[in-house]
Amino acid sequence: MHIEIDEISKQFGTTAALHPVSLAVPSGALVALLGPSGSGKTTLLRILGGLEFPTSGRVLFDGQDATGLSVQERRAGFVFQSYALFRHMTVFDNIAYGLNARPRATRPTRAEIARRVTKLLELIQLPDIGARYPSQLSGGQRQRVALARALAIEPRMLLLDEPFGALDAKVRKELRQGLRDIHDTTGLTTVFVTHDQEEAMELADLVVVMSMGRIEQIGKPQDIRARPATPFVREFITA
Amino acid sequence: MGRPLIHRSPMPGLGLSLGITLTMLSLVVLLPIGALLLKGANYGLAGIWETVNRERVWAALFLSFRLSLLAALFNLVFGVVLAWVLVRYRFPGRRILDAVVDLPFALPTAVAGIALTALYAPNGLFGQLAAGIGWKIAYTQWGIFIALVFVGLPFVTRTVQPVVEEIEREVEEASATLGASRLHTIRHVILPMLTPAALTGFALALARAVGEYGSVIFIAGNIPLVTEIAPLLIVIQLEEFNYDAAAAIGIAMLLISFAMLLVINLIQVWSRRRIGYV
Amino acid sequence: MSDATIAKPARFRPATEESPATRWALIAVSFAGLAILVLAPLIAVFVEALADGIAASLKSLTSPDARGAIRLTLTIAAISVPLNAIFGIAAAWFITKFDFRGKAFLITLIDLPFSVSPVVAGLCIVLMFGANSAIGGWLVAQGYPIVFAMPGIILATMFVTFPFVARELIPVMIEQGRAEEEAALTLGASGWRTFRTVTLPNIRWALLYGVLLCNARAMGEFGAVAVVSGKIRGQTATMPITIEMLYQEYLSVAAFSLAGVLALLALVTLLLKTALEIRHADQLAATHRH
Question: Maximum Cα–Cα distance for chain A, whole Å?
């Protein structure tokens, strides 16, 4: 799905988290929002997901104005930095949650839900952990379960907030490839937030460098490396 | 079991603190409870059973337990609502509301007892209103119920409040991004998270209500078989210097208390094992 | 790109909030419930106390019975609360500064009085120290009766308030750990000095909090005291017992006036407790758990 951000701004009280920013995300792209903390990247991601509402501006999904859509109506698969797994539910129930939450008329049958959850567990290469509770999983496993849970609702796009932030370096590398694979398999338009320039450059098709609520540069990783548009970008990517 | 009873420690004051703790615990709590159990042992199981197995005693125990259960259930629902409102919403008077929740802990039971009676007696403010629709509250089981609601009110709120504070917003947001309505989120995500704490508060309120005396006896009317609570029976036996019978009923109540203590601990173990720390 | 920006309507509400209608309904239910269940009885105390005017109310408080009851209650609190505070500090020190087997069991035993009916607590004291028991009989023969006398009331009061201070101190002292005390000891401070200059300043607000709750309960205890007091006017009739006696004699103004004094004490307790919670939240256990 093609995402367009049209002159979005966001005020929290008197401070501006986002000055009007515009951005077009081509359908099927894997995009990184890169910047230091306080740059507005998470706010922008949450606006896409319907968790925050812009002070002004529009969000368009496939050319349709989606600004007024509630978070439930957006069908954005969202992976939180803390993963936000439901700790009183098994992994299976976590992944099935979005399907079970549908109104009866559109809810798949029990057998169909089980089939889809099993398939997702295979996709994240953890076929045998359905009966476990989140507290019994490692950090990397939790991240993958959170990803599977977001994919279960057949989202129109995938939004990830610092998806590797809580992991140690070794696991991080492994899971980067995992995300790339899942993106390539599903073909979902994917936006992820990171403060790690290496991660953004390595993983994304398109990198959006942000600072202080503004977009500094949009470009392919190699273009940004070769031709940083502003002093901030130059400093940030060499840091 | 090679572990020593008390590990060596550089901390001072072992003898003093251990001595004070065990002496006072024994003198104030353990020996008196032991005296009750000893009395029961001398009286014998048969004797205890004979005392307890009488219509009036069964009626009192059953009444105490049934009304305590109902009052604790009321407090369970109201307490969870109150905890949610106090933690999540900002509105004028919130601090006062929060402080008022503790009033039943702070107000002496005898004071609460006569105040509730004054309110709900047929000539009292609420009593008159109720009488208008032919509803008698004071000196009936309704009166006992209201008194037990009063004394148990803070328990659920105070156990649930910290848990509500700890719920991560992201978990609720995750539920919403997965398409769940707010009601679905509350039912399937929030309430299950509050359940262990709410059940603990419920059990505490129940335990308190079963043993409650001061706030109930004024409003109860104390009619044998109808509005006579178990603790009152003990007092009546004691006033007749019938120590064996008093001890028998006391032991029955003590067993109920221990059972509830056990249940509370089991709930906590169960919830810790299931939910763990993520 | 279009430069038309749409002012966002107010109907957007964060995903973690209920609708305003639900919100206000729940707030209204909370206010109404607490007003009817808790505030109304409190107000009733003062209304009934002042039914014949403030002069009659004050006069009833100066009667010998009322004065005797107030004096007795103050005496009992003055003895039992410090004793329980000493116990609480000692128990919390022992439990948090040493490692030993059966710690959880000891904590359960300390908490036990909270789950025992006050009437059963009184009964236990009567069976232990009453004139019919071995110890009690001997003490009576020596001229020191426990039950139906002040020592019994103090014991009953201590029983029901036993866990208050310890319960407040233990979590706070666990959280603070032992490092500061260990540092003081390595610097050559004596044990007592370490406690006085390092531990006590760290736990003083929690201690005050526990003492406050302990005191409120000690002055207001009815069930346990009713069983052991014998209800002798001017000698073993505490304030709550006197309230009961006056109420049974249909001396409503006198009963509610005395009740009003205890209700004021409860309000002051709540006020101080709330002030402590606001100003020293970080040093209290109660604001972390309950």
Answer: 56
